[in-house]
């Protein structure tokens, strides 16, 4: 067997503990390790003269070691090692704390480059705990790896050298050479060698392109294979002449054009034999639930059942009430299945469902997926909210024969990324808000203005409206943050003593949460102090003010979602972002948020600020393990990989040809890592 595919513990220095640390990063073999791509590089190429290098800012200087001083024991457990060096013009001191090995490796008379921050006076510059390498080292860029507890950068570097050595001994490239030539890509060993030991920027870009190509290609191949498989099956077909007029007539509002268009697209899907696989994407408050209700109506009128799955109980309950409101006057029977229902009630619901006495079942994912039998499941709607990856979506395909599938997603995502992540789906976009919505006014202020902000919140509540105050944390102990519980107490006793204040956080029991949400919705509470449990989907149109504490702690898209809890009716809404942070990045985020309410623009800015991995806030998004920040804008590469995937599968639909074996293994591995084992 190729040694690259042995357990990672085959590498020198990898004991049980380190192997576990690697496993946490999804690395089981030296081959996996090779795809652990550096987060960034320490660039030693352009040293600055010590005299003019900036102080307290990361920089690189060069120096010849002139003297090594004896160890200084400052106190028990703290030893300081110092060496003096010169860059020809000025002298400086290199200082290490407790790091004998780094100090010991420096040799008097040799010249090194040091990366770190310079401190000290004009006469005596010092550089503390620098990273360094010999000035004549052929590779002057040191990779910086994403780490986890139990791993350090030097450990990963050392293991990586060995893994690269194995690859050199037994060169391996899973990409068929025809594809490699067609798209003018370098070989895998070349790409990996350069990415882990780069010599120059242009070659590095080539190497990254190759790795991104592979990652995107594998993603697309897997999706196409799953899709082809479900296409080979047939779904229940419905009647295109099904009359939606009664549904439209009973809506309490006029649907937007975007809603009508999406409903037509979805119902069009339902009339085909190929199981539908559609994403309904809409900005916060764009009215996705009404579209879902229309699809359920259509399905029911054709004699089939629908399931709507939400990520939390609060949302499931809310969707249940909304759908029930839309559909039960039309004679459609809607049921709710959540974990906090008494066992007897759950049984009753399941029995009714099985007997065909329920047309629509709303619930949490786990409950609907487990032991729930639908005699005629025509449509599965998943309110995904970006919580779930490729794997879960695919797993649904196995449920109840082959129902049509509709995924609802609230965060608008840039088109390139949508193609990458949802390459397997057709997309309907709600790009229009209901008429009469006023853009939310957003202000970023410091804590000094908190009392004034409270005053403003009170004035809105005096006018009969409701408000949210959001804090990021729930555990005590984070000293810089007031825990939400004590914060709520403080508000109840102080600024909001005259108002009805509710509290909602993630550690409460589902039934309690639901009760608080129900009272807030019914207008029995004026103010809801909460954590981000309100982030997704919660819909209380009378709530018009949101005040967010420590707003710098949230990502842009998350703030957009949070803010979207207000501005859901016709009244003017306001969002006050409180922050005392001085960090440029968080200020930039708040600036973007104050200047626009367009979810697509915000998503694009967020992607630029954070890169696609963090953008979804989940390891399960199925995105390739390459830092694709700039590649997300590279439509060309996405198109090329789509084309390549189609060509490969046209010739070999299941990748059974020996030239595609390695590629197949890569695809299966990628999907298995994301929880989808159906490709095996
Ligand atoms: N065409 C419309 N005209 C007026 N109000 C509408 C229209 N469509 C939906 N609404 C109302 O707008 C609010 C938001 O709708 P809904 O909860 O479906 O939004 P959403 O798209 O799920 O948003 P989010 O992702 O933020 O939860 C609801 O109160 C709903 O009743």
TrEMBL record:
The keyword Transcription regulation does not apply. GO terms for biological process: DNA recombination; DNA repair. Residues 448-608 form the Helicase C-terminal domain. InterPro entries: ATP-dep_DNA_helicase_RecG (IPR004609), DEAD/DEAH_box_helicase_dom (IPR011545), Helicase_ATP-bd (IPR014001), Helicase_C-like (IPR001650), NA-bd_OB-fold (IPR012340), P-loop_NTPase (IPR027417), RecG/Mfd (IPR047112), RecG_dom3_C (IPR045562). Pfam families: DEAD, Helicase_C, RecG_dom3_C, RecG_wedge. GO terms for molecular function: 3'-5' DNA helicase activity; ATP binding; ATP hydrolysis activity; DNA binding. Residues 269-430 form the Helicase ATP-binding domain. It catalyses: Couples ATP hydrolysis with the unwinding of duplex DNA by translocating in the 3'-5' direction; ATP + H2O = ADP + phosphate + H(+). SUPFAM superfamilies: Nucleic acid-binding proteins (SSF50249), P-loop containing nucleoside triphosphate hydrolases (SSF52540). Its EC number is 5.6.2.4. Keywords: ATP-binding, DNA damage, DNA recombination, DNA repair, DNA-binding, Helicase, Hydrolase, Isomerase, Nucleotide-binding. It is an enzyme of class 5 (isomerase). Belongs to the helicase family. RecG subfamily. Plays a critical role in recombination and DNA repair. Helps process Holliday junction intermediates to mature products by catalyzing branch migration. Has replication fork regression activity, unwinds stalled or blocked replication forks to make a HJ that can be resolved. Has a DNA unwinding activity characteristic of a DNA helicase with 3'-5' polarity. This is ATP-dependent DNA helicase RecG. It comes from Ruminococcus champanellensis (strain DSM 18848 / JCM 17042 / KCTC 15320 / 18P13). The lineage of its organism: Bacteria, Bacillati, Bacillota, Clostridia, Eubacteriales.
């Amino acid at each position: 067997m190729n040694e690259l595919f042995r357990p990672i513990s085959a590498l020198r220095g990898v004991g049980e503990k380190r192997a576990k640390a690697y496993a946490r990063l999804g690395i089981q073999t030296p081959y996996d390790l090779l795809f652990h791509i550096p987060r960034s590089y320490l660039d030693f190429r352009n040293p600055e003269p010590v005299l003019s290098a900036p102080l307290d800012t990361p920089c690189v200087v060069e120096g010849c070691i002139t003297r090594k001083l004896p160890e200084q024991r400052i106190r028990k457990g703290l030893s300081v090692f110092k060496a003096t060096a010169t860059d020809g013009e000025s002298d400086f001191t290199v200082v290490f704390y407790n790091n004998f090995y780094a100090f010991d490796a420096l040799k008097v008379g040799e010249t090194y480059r040091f990366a770190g921050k310079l401190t000290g006076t004009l006469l005596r510059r010092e550089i503390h705990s620098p990273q360094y390498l010999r000035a004549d080292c052929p590779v002057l860029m040191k990779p910086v790896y994403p780490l986890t507890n139990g791993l350090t950068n030097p450990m990963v570097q050392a293991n990586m050298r060995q893994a690269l050595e194995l690859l050199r001994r037994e060169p391996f490239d899973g990409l068929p050479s025809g594809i490699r030539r067609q798209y003018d890509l370098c070989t895998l060993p070349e790409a990996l060698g350069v990415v882990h030991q780069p010599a120059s920027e242009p070659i590095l870009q080539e190497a990254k392109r190759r790795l991104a190509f592979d990652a995107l290609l594998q993603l697309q191949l897997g999706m196409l294979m799953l899709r082809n498989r479900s296409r080979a099956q047939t779904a229940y077909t419905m009647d295109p002449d099904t009359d939606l007029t009664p549904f439209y007539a009973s809506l309490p509002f006029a649907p937007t054009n975007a809603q009508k268009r999406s409903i037509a697209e979805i119902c069009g899907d339902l009339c085909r034999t190929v199981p539908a696989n559609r994403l309904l994407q809409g900005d916060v408050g764009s009215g996705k639930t009404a579209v879902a209700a229309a699809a359920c109506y259509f399905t029911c009128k054709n004699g089939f059942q629908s399931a709507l799955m939400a990520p939390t109980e609060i949302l499931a309950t809310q969707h249940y009430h909304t759908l029930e409101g839309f559909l039960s006057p039309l004679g459609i029977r809607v049921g709710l299945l959540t974990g906090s229902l008494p066992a007897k009630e759950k049984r009753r619901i399941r029995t009714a469902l099985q007997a065909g006495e329920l047309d629509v079942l709303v619930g949490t994912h786990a409950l609907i997926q487990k032991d729930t039998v639908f005699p005629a499941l025509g449509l599965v709607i998943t309110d995904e909210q970006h919580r779930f990856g490729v794997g879960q979506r695919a797993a649904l395909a196995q449920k109840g024969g082959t129902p049509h599938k509709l995924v609802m997603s609230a965060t608008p995502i840039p088109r390139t990324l949508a193609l990458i992540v949802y390459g397997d789906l057709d997309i309907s976009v709600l790009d229009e808000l209901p008429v009469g919505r006023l853009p939310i006014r957003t202000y970023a202020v410091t804590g000094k203005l908190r009392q004034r902000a409270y005053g403003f919140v009170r004035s809105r509540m005096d006018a009969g409206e409701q408000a949210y105050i959001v804090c990021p944390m729930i555990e005590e102990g984070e000293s810089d943050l007031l825990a939400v519980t004590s914060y709520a107490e403080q508000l109840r006793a102080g600024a909001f003593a005259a108002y009805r204040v509710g509290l909602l956080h993630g550690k409460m029991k589902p039934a309690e949460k639901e009760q608080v949400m129900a009272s807030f919705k019914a207008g029995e509470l004026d103010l809801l102090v909460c954590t981000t449990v309100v982030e997704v989907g919660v819909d209380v149109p009378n709530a018009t003010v949101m005040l967010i504490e420590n707003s710098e702690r949230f990502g842009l898209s998350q703030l957009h979602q949070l803010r979207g809890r207000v501005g859901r009716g016709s009244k003017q809404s306001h969002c006050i972002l409180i922050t005392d942070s001085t960090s440029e990045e968080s200020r930039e985020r708040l600036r973007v948020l104050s200047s626009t309410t367009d979810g697509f623009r915000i998503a694009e800015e967020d992607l630029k600020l954070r890169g696609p991995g963090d953008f979804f806030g989940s390891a399960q998004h199925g995105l390739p393990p390459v830092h694709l920040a700039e590649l997300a804008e590279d439509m060309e590469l996405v198109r090329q990989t789509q084309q390549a995937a189609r060509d490969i599968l046209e010739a070999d639909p299941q990748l059974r040809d020996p030239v595609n074996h390695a590629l197949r293994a890569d695809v299966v591995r990628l999907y298995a890592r994301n929880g989808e084992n159906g490709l095996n």
